[in-house]
Amino acid sequence: MKKSTIHILCTxxxxxxxINGQQTDDSERMRNVRKFFKDIEDKAMAExxxxxxxxxxxVENLFPIHSTGVSTIHITTAANNFLRSLDKEQLxxxxxxxxxxxxxx
Length: 105
Known about the structure:
The protein is mainly alpha-helical. The protein has one domain (about 5-95). The protein has helices spanning about 5-15, 25-45, 75-85, 90-95; strands at about 20, 20-25, 55, 55-60. It has a two-stranded antiparallel ribbon. It has a two-stranded antiparallel sheet with strand order 3-4. A hairpin with a 2-residue loop joins strand 3 and strand 4 (about 55-60). The radius of gyration is 20 Å and the shape is extended. The chain starts with a helix and ends in an 11-residue tail after the last helix. The mean pLDDT is about 85.
């Protein structure tokens, strides 16, 4: 993460949500915060996803797929039961293709 981004996030975290030095009401403050994070999201989504990066570069094989010996039957059953409980609209809002940009948000 760039130092400028960290500085901006710290500013938000410490509650300096004011315009021209004047305190704003909560609803306006929340609109400003949402817009700030939406702008960050839009900028990130405009870039191609290539993986997880740190200050040392791209991390390869962060989560390699391999058998752990633990059965997945219980989680698979629970997930399938959950998906079957949804109506068509809920299912559409809950499931995404593997390469859908929604996963990056």
